[in-house]
Amino acid sequence: MRFDIVTLFPELFAPFLSSGITRRAFESGLVDVQLANPRDFAAGNYRRVDDRPFGGGPGMVMMAEPLAQCLHSIQSQRARAAPVLLFSPAGQPLNHAMVQRWSDSQGAILICGRYEGLDQRFIDAHVTEQISLGDFVLSGGEIAAMALLDAVARLQPGVLNAPGSHQQDSFNPVLDGLLDCPHYTRPEQWAGRPVPQVLLSGHHVQIEHWRREQRLLLTLRLRPELIDQARREGRLTGADEAFLANQH
Description:
Layout: E1 2-6, H1 13-17, H2 23-28, E2 32-36, E3 50-51, E4 61-62, H3 64-77, E5 84-93, H4 96-103, E6 107-111, H5 120-126, E7 129-132, H6 142-153, E8 189-190, E9 193-194, H7 204-222, H8 224-232, H9 238-245
Parallel strand pairs: 1-2, 1-6, 5-6, 5-7
Antiparallel strand pairs: 3-4, 8-9
Helix pairs in contact: 3-5, 4-6, 7-8
């Protein structure tokens, strides 16, 4: 799996790729990350990659030609043409299903925009898919690219300490797309707050029953649309529905 990152600030990725548990994926080559700077493909002494927008207005726009030359160089190094992703407020919100899809793929080319954005002609000619982290604007696509890489890396075999632990994450189909339940650790009492007694019981069936109800309760309170989705997909049991009915 190879991800090429097109960015004006490749130095931002050095600490990300060498820190935390997901570094195992990058250092081992499970997820091969290559960095490319459009400025290296820009013309002139100043290696200019942006210019004023036609029609006026604030800010600058990334020019199409340096991006296209950079993209051509990347594609020529790959065995087969790769999809081109752009991080943009216009994109589809990143979710677990998308992360899983890219985790199962051969990778992609990730375009990190800056300034007011990219020349639309480059987007029309080359971008396969646009992705957003949500309804807000960042100063560049690098943080969004790191978010995707981190989410993909942790799904790779051997990256997490406990195999399959990611299956207990929020949004995972194993949890029927619900939020995960609350978690507790030592001490049993902290600041006058005890750990729920059921978690100390050693009764695994009761613990799993409590965790299921907590997932339902938390999701109902914070992300009710996920309850609706799970219901549409037939993921809720009769016991789930009875529990939810008592919360209104």
